Amino acid sequence: MALAVTSPTKGTRAARTRATEDRILAVALDSFGTKGFDSVSLDDLASELGITKQAILYHWPSKRVLLDAVIDRAALELIIEFDGALSEDGWGWSRVESVVRRIFRVAMRRPELLGFIREISRIGGDASLRVTADLEPFVTRATAYFEREMDEGRIRRCDPGLLLVSAYSTVLGAATEVEVLRAVGIEPTLRSTVIRRRELLSFLHAAMVAPEFVRLQAPR
Amino acid sequence: MALAVTSPTKGTRAARTRATEDRILAVALDSFGTKGFDSVSLDDLASELGITKQAILYHWPSKRVLLDAVIDRAALELIIEFDGALSEDGWGWSRVESVVRRIFRVAMRRPELLGFIREISRIGGDASLRVTADLEPFVTRATAYFEREMDEGRIRRCDPGLLLVSAYSTVLGAATEVEVLRAVGIEPTLRSTVIRRRELLSFLHAAMVAPEFVRLQAPR
DNA sequence: ATGAATGTTTACCACTTGGTAAGTGAAACG
DNA sequence: CGTTTCACTTACCAAGTGGTAAACATTCAT
User: Fold this and answer.
1) CB neighbours (10 Å) of residue A120?
2) Across residues B184-194, what is the average pLDDT?
3) Which is the most buried residue in A90, B33, B132, B199, by most CB within 10 A?
4) What value does the mean pLDDT take over residues B213-220?
């Protein structure tokens, strides 16, 4: 879903240019994330934006360069969505819980954002390197956080990187793998999503929380 | 990687036809699974097979119908790969462990197979319905198995469908999400895969096994 | 042997793809 | 005010896209 955009008839020229580029990036992120890079033509993007394909190619010299710009934008938005959770109040399990809630919120409200990251992984090559580089600071922060929690014995000791991947793909899967959910007889309604989140939290809780802290940090 | 194929100059005509269709399906599954449906043209497939695109269109009237055939084949192969694990010896945790080991083995040896299922989910529509229908018997068996284990108190009680999804996406993620792994500083070598599998098993063990059984079913 | 069925190729076709070149109208600037 | 810069459009293009039609070669049944 395209975000509401500022009217193109206001502001200075530079501002309007930035606004146009923003609109293009937003629509491209949405389309690439839901339909896939190769399945979306520049003409598709253009017609959705009510402009011509050449207008897009004016701002970026090729579709591939546009993709790079979309990658940067997606990484930025992801960091904005998630990074705050690491700074929130609380400790141990309650903080993990807030991160999971955030991922669910993003998966429900911005599924194209998470789908886009997946798409980039599949494309591979330079695109993957770019998103990896873009997310590096966040990943560093997150693993450092996990390590601290382990040091203080609040969550079970294990490889923090793998823990991050496991938690990420578990949550992402439960939140986005709609077809698989359907296959196991779970219709992705709002109500079922709430249930899934609760079940998942208890799943993660059991997996992550150090035994001696279980009683102190029970999931709701 | 295309499998070794029987020479097209042997056997009866019907057999050779079947062999050709098999080769086409194998290459199509590989290509669609790794590059995506829209990123692979019929000409790409044909040239990889050393035939012409029209030869493919002789066996299936359109690319979309070919996709349906590939879906059926992928589902069949998936079931063959996984279903055996449900019939293996052992009970409780040891059986879960054997399923996880199987998924890892498939993810390492046939990444295109798992990638293809993801791709189909993204395409959505009739394609998703088809793969869902194809996998239904297996899913039924798996959830029934989980339910039995819960009834007997060997694994923690929860929604069996969600447990399946969680375990599926966790393992699939840890096994296939190569770029995410790279992002958190884990190079996907053989050695690291073994480590990841072990870590993941302990993660799943903690999450799934009922507390009173933990001592009896410790992960290695 | 011969004719029919079958699997494949050659020859096309209309349409879409990413990308180029040149033109246009309005805003920014002297 | 003129003119230059900028964001964008119209007009193309060569290379591919999925798909059709018909010719062709091989195998099978008679």
Assistant:
1) 25
2) 77
3) B33
4) 50
Digit-coded pLDDT (tens) for A18-46: 999 999 999 999 999 999 999 999 999 99
CB B18 within 8 A of CB B97: no
Interface test with B, best of A165, A199, A209 (most B CBs within 10 A): A165
B22 and B5 Cβ atoms separated by less than 8 Å: yes
Q: Which residues of B, range 153-192, sit inside 8 Å of A by Cβ?
A: 156, 158-159, 161-166, 168-170, 172-174, 177-186
φ and ψ of A90, to 5 deg:
90, 170
CB within 8 A of B144, min separation 6: which ones? none
Q: Tens digits of per-residue pLDDT, A189-216?
A: 778 778 878 877 877 787 777 666 654 4
Please state whether strand D lies within 7 Å of residue B57 at its CB atom: yes
3-state secondary structure of A61: coil
Q: How much is the average pLDDT of B132-146? A: 88
d(C-alpha A27, C-alpha B138), whole Å:
39
DSSP secondary structure code for residue A86 in this structure: H
CA distances from A51 to A31, A33, A64, B11, B179 (A): 16, 21, 19, 58, 34
